[in-house]
Amino acid sequence: MKTAFVICPLGDAASPVRRRSDLLLNHVIRPVAEPHGYAVSRADLTPDQLTLPESISVHILEDDLVIADLTDCNPNVFYELGKRHAWGGKCIHLTQSIEAVPFDVKHYRVIKYDLNNPESLDEVRRQLTLQIRAVERAPSKLPLTPEKLIALTDATLVLDFHENRKGHYPLAEELVNNSCKKIFLMQRSSSIILGPEQGWGGEKVFYEALLKQIKGGTEFLHVVSIEGIINHIKRDSSVFPRAKEAISNLSQEGDCIGIAGPSSNFFIKKIPEEAGDPDLKADRQARALIVELSDGSVEGLLVADLGARQGWFHMKGPKIANFLKRCYDFYYECDHLTSQDLIEIKRTFG
Question: Is residue 272 domain-shared with residue 249, that is, in the same domain?
Fold first, then answer.
């Protein structure tokens, strides 16, 4: 069944505003919408377990039709209607006073009603019938894009998910090829230190895109695992043909190892051997690439290991931005990668 959500002033249960809205719902909207196959609901009549604002947002974003009563220019009604208009959902507008409708909404077709004149309601119902038929025939507007949903709900979205070992590198390359302000990369091994692994073409392209950003001055915060790097080198199946070149790209300031940007070194940090609970290792189950773009938006690529399987998530929105702040904090809590650490890594190559 199709769904129609009514947004209107409500007021207290016994108020004249509630009485007007009840009359409009029961004598105009339901008698027209229900025969057209719509289940009609209203915020105070929705039997779900969500909070009232959550329930309203779900209906505004998901219902097939919104019918809005603009009478009294109620702020809540216009706030909710603005959300609906923002993503192009189908709407029908009613009011007691066309003259009172604000300029930004007046150019939409608005049906005028007068509940004090029962004889006029047949005409209102006829116009509402025509409007429902018209919006059903009208082509849908632009779909609800991730950007619109983020703006409307202030949420972070999972834009993509895959379960494989190598598939995340093209996305990683795409993320760092944007106009970036900052890049955070936590990697159990390190493409920056070892260079791309033989047979991993996607990592090679990502590595080169990352170097280009760093040399262009994008702030780069990198956290690695010494244990992870050494274990990776020791694998019989792992070959790093560009390791010497990669290590030559590193810089040293005092005893700290980093990679040079155009005006400063971006120091590489290492994950503590034990941080807090010794059963939890910061990189054991996940790797993270989070980028802050020049427009202030944030996107993230999180790679999670589940036993021998690996999955990765592409995320965007305010919550991943909050996670990026935690990543920054973690970076600054970690110790620097030192020249002695680099000597140990080189020694592992033999």
Answer: yes
Buried b (16+ CB within 10 A) or exposed e, 31-48: ebbeeeebebbbbeeeee
Domain end call among 100, 115, 146: 146
**Contacts with 311 (C-beta within 8 Å, 6 or more apart), sequence order:** 161, 162, 163, 303, 304
Co-location of 343 and 245 in the same domain: yes
Each residue of 90-115: pLDDT tens digit?
999 999 998 888 877 778 889 999 99
Residue matched to tokens 């609800």:
144
- Could you tell me the pTM of the whole model? 0.62
pLDDT tens digit sequence for 107-161? 888 999 999 998 899 999 999 999 999 999 987 766 667 777 777 667 888 888 8
What amino acid is encoded at 281 in this protein?
K
Give the orientation angle of helix 75-87 with respect to helix 52-62, to 10 degrees. 40
Residues facing residue 143 across a β-bridge:
none
Tell me, yes or no, whether 151 lies in a domain.
no
| Total domain count, the chain | 2
Last residue of a domain, one of 146, 167, 201: 146
Residue 230, domain extent: 156-349
At 122 the pLDDT is 94
Tokens of 25: 């719902």
Report the alpha-carbon distance of residue 293 to residue 295 in Å, rounded: 5
80 burial via Cβ count (<10 Å: 0-12, 13-18, 19+)? buried
For residues 282 and 230, the model is more confident at: 230
